[in-house]
Amino acid sequence: MSTRNLIWVVIIILTCVSSTGAQTREARSDTQSLLPKHHLPDGSFRNNHRPAINKPGSDLLKWLWNRERPGPVSFTLENNDPQFLRENKSDPTITWIGHATLLIQYDGLNILTDPHFTERASPFRFIGPRRFTPPGLALTDLPQIDLVVISHNHYDHLDEGTIKELYTRQADQPPRIFVPLKQKQWFDNLGIPNVVELDWGENADYKGWRVHAVPTQHWSGRSLWDQNKVLWAGWVLEHPSFSFLFVGDTGYSPDFADIGKRFGPIDLAAIPIGAYEPRWFMSSSHVNPEEAVDIHLDIRARYSVGIHWGTFQLTDEPMDEPPVRLKQVLKRFRIPQDRFFVMQHGETRSLNFIEN
Ligand code: ZN
Ligand code: ZN
Q: How far is the centre of ligand 2, averaged over its atoms, from the C-alpha of 139 (Å)?
């Protein structure tokens, strides 16, 4: 690999998963006392409980130098029925498209989480983490999308090609896109309308749903120069007969006990279970399956689905390890396996099991 390519690899990894770089400045000024805790006087953001960006650049190099990546794994796609999904107006369903991308259908509304359908989690077509499992549902097979939630701007969660294509397909009726604070400008620059940005603790109503932005333990950035300049968030979607939490990426933190107190019990939560090794490097911004189960308990989820695994190889655990470890943890905690399930890529499940 040429030096130039190596530099790009470092930058892309840095902006996808690693929590290193300049230390987040902990402001100590009078201005800070007037701001919410997660707002810094320079306009950037921080976590409620501990920084995610807490390692020197030398730690990134140490990780990259020493890492032993297991071979990539590609998963076979489960058959689904795009025509049914396009025409479905009444059956509640969940389809795992891959990584953090879910299609949820409930009461006639089609919801997408962190849509990503392209080849790489990268700003470039030719370099950066490659997709090893194709999208479980083609973007062209999607039903008309009503609502999209974006957790944060890392390349495996906010994909420019996907966002543009989604808009092009629905230019006459663009989906309402909910994004964390200060992320709307990125959409404005692309000419994408119908975007609502929310701060942690804020909510907005849409077609009978209340959409809340909630804190997570993570960070943001798409280059070396914009770390934490826009916010990151989880999303609670409340319908009169169904509540859903989309966590996105997160490390473990007391935020989840707070979410549980405020919104629990939550009917269904999508919790990340992959991208966690090595722990010394990743734990401030990515949970492992053990901590994912802690989150499941903290938020008092009736059911959870494990996401953020088996699609891109971002970190050092084998790509097929997260669901295996999740099963072991559930057994240890005596939690029935169906309460925190994983799906096959492309699999559609009825949500009728979430009876009221
Ligand atoms: Zn991330
Ligand atoms: Zn991620």
A: 20
